[in-house]
Write a structure and sequence with these properties.
Elements (H helix, E strand, L loop, with lengths): L3 H29 L11 H25 L6 H20 L2 H6 L9 H28 L8 H22 L5 H28 L3
Helix pairs in contact: 1-2, 1-7, 2-3, 3-5, 5-6, 6-7
């Protein structure tokens, strides 16, 4: 059974994940712009720091979801939550790398643009893992801990993210179609899903 402290921390961290997801998108898509490629000297440091806290929020939320939703008795949820925890930790470890590279006092083998590009490439797979996890979590909610709107948002986000990434993998989706699908799934529905998870924790705090 989840403790009151764990539930409070889960509520806080799921909300942190939601807020930082929206904030990083706003900086990347609006302030930096979708046409910009590489590391932004102006907004990159802020975006990287937000990405760091986004990773922290997701790691705490996913880890505590395992306890809230009884992952010990649900093999799919337990194993896939572990996979996504590892993926989220990977995101966390390289979240600050572009800024560290840009400001390094030493000569680096890769420049900040290249490091940013490598991080983005890895994210393509991690997004798919998040989408699958959302589906497994919502389907494992036998006690209806999630509000109905959060469950729908999680399934919607998971579906859209998986579809967009799968089509992108095989070059079957144009950029002008991929962007709105990913924005709806990853920037609108995903934060709503995380807010719903925050509410589920709050009901047990």
């Amino acid at each position: 059974m989840i403790t009151s402290l764990e539930a409070r921390r889960g509520r806080q961290m799921a909300m942190l994940a939601a807020i930082t997801t929206i904030a990083t998108f706003f900086i990347g898509a609006i302030l930096i712009g979708p046409e910009f490629v590489g590391y932004s000297e102006q907004w990159g440091p802020i975006n990287n720091v937000l990405g760091f806290f986004q990773g922290i929020g997701h790691i705490f939320a996913i880890g505590l979801c395992m306890k809230l939703f009884g992952a010990d008795d649900k093999v799919d949820l337990r194993i896939f939550s572990t996979i996504v925890l590892i993926a989220a930790t990977m995101q966390l470890t390289y979240s600050l790398s572009p800024t560290f590279t840009a400001n390094s006092v030493f000569k680096t083998e890769f420049n900040s643009d290249q490091v940013t590009g490598m991080a983005g490439t890895i994210n393509s797979v991690i997004f798919v893992l998040y989408g699958i996890w959302a589906w497994i979590l919502t389907n494992s909610d036998s006690s209806n801990l999630l509000p109905s709107w959060a469950s729908l948002a999680g399934k919607g986000a998971g579906t859209l993210i998986i579809v967009a990434q799968a089509l992108s993998l095989f070059g079957l989706i144009p950029g002008n179609l991929w962007a709105p699908i990913f924005i709806l799934g990853g920037v609108i529905l995903w934060p709503v899903f995380m807010i719903g998870i925050s509410n589920a924790f709050g009901n047990n705090a």
